Amino acid sequence: MREGEPEERVAAAIAAAAGDEVVALRHVGRACASGLGVDGVSLSVIGDLGTAEPTQATDDVAERIVELEIVHGGGPALLALEQDDPVLLPRLVADRRWPLLVPALAEVGAAALFAFPLAAGGVTVGVLEVYQRWPRALTEAEVAVGVLFAESALELLVSGEDDVLAGPVADRWTFVNQAVAVVAAQIGGALEDGYARLRGHAFVTGRRLPDLAAQVLAGELVFGV
């Protein structure tokens, strides 16, 4: 990504990642990982429950990272959503804001995290999060490129194309949403209550939310009042 203006390089990288396919969020993630030379990228959008919902990830680690942030209720991705500014953590273990989350993130392979909100006009609809397996700071130019990839993802989201979000990660989180509704019914509460119970169970047991959702939908895991 050395020729042309940054915007042109980002657009060309995304187009190259898509090839003959219609450009979708997964192509933005792949192009971002390659363009920044990082280990992985995830893309999340604000779901019906008002919090981040993973839709794309370049690998399992990227998906696991944002999932842990959701379970713990904090982290750079969620903070970027709140403050509408990039959150840059070149050395994750040095951060003291999330004492329980940081060791969990390190365990799955994150040493550096960079979150870029998908925002325009004061409205944030998602976040692009980059991870690195070893500590590393992004240069100013790389941060600017990360912002451009986030802007490209936002443009795709507002385009209204149905298949922009399509993929296995989005499918897994569709089942999570279905399980939340089941849990809410089981405990006689609102969807937010059901989601809190499911996340709490994931936190206590160390299980993944999609795995718990599968058990709930199969009737193998039942929550009482």
UniProtKB/TrEMBL annotation:
Q: Which domain of life is it from?
A: Bacteria
* InterPro entries the record matches: GAF, GAF-like_dom_sf
Where do the GAF domain residues begin and end? 24-150
> Which one Pfam family would you cite for this protein?
GAF
Which named protein is this?
GAF domain-containing protein
Q: What is the lineage of its organism?
A: Bacteria, Bacillati, Actinomycetota, Actinomycetes, Pseudonocardiales
